[in-house]
Amino acid sequence: MTSSGRRGFLKGGLAALGGGALLASAGKSVMAGKASDIRIEDWNRDLGGAVIDNPYGVPSEFESHVVRRNVEWLTVTQESSVSFTPLHELDGFITPNGLCFERHHGGVAEVDPAAHRLMINGLVDKPLVFTMEDLKRFPRVNRFAFLECAANSGMEWRGAQLNGCQFTHGMVHCVQYTGVPLKLLLEEAGLKGNAKWLMPEGADSAGMNRSVPIEKALEDCIVAYKMNGEALRPEQGYPLRLVVPGWEGNMWVKWLRRIEVGDKPWHTREETSKYTDLMEDGSSRRFTWIMDAKSVVTNPSPQSPLTAKGHNILSGLAWSGRGKVTRVDVTLDGGKNWHRAELSGPVLDKCLTRFYLPFEWNGDPLLIQSRAIDETGYIQPTKDELRKVRGLNSIYHNNGIQTWHVQSSGEAENVEIS
Ligand SMILES: Nc1nc2c(c(=O)[nH]1)N[C@H]1C(S)=C(S)[C@@H](COP(=O)(O)O)O[C@H]1N2
Ligand SMILES: [Mo]
Fold first, then answer.
1. pTM reported for the whole predicted model
2. What phi and psi, each to the nearest 5 degrees, are found at residue 18?
3. Residues 3 and 159 sit within 8 Å (Cβ to Cβ)
4. pLDDT digit string, tens, across residues 179-193
5. Which atom of ligand 1 is nearest to the CA of 82?
6. Domain boundary at 260, 285, 310, which?
7. Whether residue 208 has its Cβ less than 6 Å from ligand 1
8. For residue 355, how far is its CA from the centre of ligand 2 (angstroms)?
């Protein structure tokens, strides 16, 4: 169905919404089965597997559907492409390493850490080359941060398109990084007085590079070698990547091999043509680095339908590149009534934040939305509010409110309401 078709359909359907969804009163019981349903299964009788059957543990075979997915028609090749985090299958705020979405411009580089070097050159007193071992002798920090591609939700600018939060919102992940504060490495090299910009560069075939202002580099950037406690995954830049908390994903250069210090930004082809928001009047917004507050309901959603009436838990994620999420409001009736969701901690700076809303479902259709508010007071806008400011030409930085239409069957689809 086209988005306008969906919209038209919904206008008619809205009347049916009525007062279907009521908030749960505390302590509502959930239906339980009967004792006669319980059987003795094979795994109760046979000896299980040995301890080292899987030297590196993998999820249960019953979880084999919990994987990254791609949208094949989105990109011409699968090397310069993107896969999406299965947000609807996860809980809490940490993304498991094997499920972090991937975005590469030239495929996954296979880098031998023993041969890998990080060079710092340009406007510094002494250019330096570090081995991985050198970097591990610097003081290190641990911090959690979300990484969101500027193109996340980009396919949704013109209307509801992809059916699942994995595809509409799955270009985001949140892990704990371990590494060296970039500030320490720059201090070691000694910044010249006119040092204003950094150009980090990757060792992949894309030789990906971006311009990063020096203030951000000194504030909280990390040259990271671990994620969630173990070495970075090859897809995430093994053995070294740049972490730029709260800022768009393309600056987080993977397979980091060089940081050049300069006095002005590098106007690469990449930067002038991509990651720039094209406005209706033909002008463009450049250097929109900070990821504005955003949220999405992960369950229910198109890949995670409601399966039972009565008590249910709505769940979702909210984040902001400007700091902590302070509040998430959820509506079940297309914005007539808003309910404050519970933020289930920890609630951290520039991190995904988990929220829940228990509710009673009587089987009537729902129009579900969530709205994030961050510590700067910024309120996540509707998609129409964004379009008023930026028109329809944009791809990047779509942080508009997402709507799921849950039907009486419990199935959900991606829609827009105006
Ligand atoms: N060297 C290199 N770094 C890169 C890229 C790349 O193609 N090459 N892609 C960038 C983009 S556009 C994004 S959104 C993030 C994705 O990080 P992830 O693959 O860990 O999710 O890496 C960034 N860093
Ligand atoms: Mo990206």
1. 0.91
2. 50, -145
3. yes
4. 999 999 999 999 999
5. 19
6. 285
7. yes
8. 25
